[in-house]
Write a structure and sequence with these properties.
The complex is a heterodimer of chains A (223) and B (121). With 223 residues, chain A is mainly α. Chain A is built from eight helices and two strands. The chains are: A mainly alpha (223), B mainly alpha (121). The interface between A and B is large, with 71 and 65 residues.
Amino acid sequence: MHIPDGYLGPITYGSLWAAIAPIWFYASKKIKETMKASQVPFLALGAAFSFVIMMFNVPIPGGATGHATGATLIAIFIGPWAAIMAVSIALIIQALIFGDGGITAIGANCFNIGFAGVLVGYRIYRLIAGKSDVTSRKRVIGAGIGAYIGINLAAFLTAFELGIQTVLHVGADGRPLYSPFPLSITIPAIMLEHIFLFGIVEALVTVLVLLYIQKSHPELIRG
Amino acid sequence: MKSSKLKVKTLWFKKLWIGIGILVLLSPLGLIIPDLLKAGGAWGEWGTNEIEKVAGYVPHGLKKLSELWSALIPDYAFSGWDRGIKSYIAYIISGLIGVAIIVGVTYLFAKILKRGERGMN
């Protein structure tokens, strides 16, 4: 799901930089207003967790690999706006230092995984969890479903952005200038693997960590 | 009472960081298991060599943009250390470097945000 440099043309990566900039600005404002100095280590922990969990490539036998992102899980502990920044920081370092995701595509990857994945995953979690106790089963179910839908939304946005390149940018020779696969290929290729495997991995990671924290440190979960 | 509470707090907080450390040490599983199951990279994250194999050619714009940035540690690997045990060690070291940079950047980000406020030294 980390779009590399060259797969998106300037219209798409430019638009997504333009979209993520005000989101980062708003998230920073939210963090400044609501986060106490003592909570900063949690922001760092969330960013580090997102980075590390993305190193665990999960294989489809004989096929591609993918990974969890921890997006919804992190939001459950530090709130959605802090989580958007935490995941964004992880994605930016991945791109700059490790070439995992492109520089031009930082806006796109942060929008897909960091913003859409986090916010929608978290909202679904809240919707299902309601005002239930932090140790309740409802929280776990909400977290699992939120995480599953969140990562699938991020995957869908990725597939959509890749797939529209053949329409947006065609060279003089009639061949695509950037990602050469149409939506009819990108959507099934990326969605099937996320619906049937990586989404389930994301939900499992989220549920297992939440169950552990519910037992050991329930005070960490936001009410 | 308050100080003992704080101690407990730092203790479990350490535990969470130890958890991150354990994950970094286990991270080579993210290379080993895909290798065992003969899985390739992520869909749509191919380099130009691979995309030529998949699509039959390398789109012009893609080629140009893909040369834009040279990462310090591409693919969490060191050159010449891209196979077997050495690649696992490189993966772990990359994980440690990544976590260290991320923690540093996050603190810097928070410090800039909270600049001028009390209790944020």
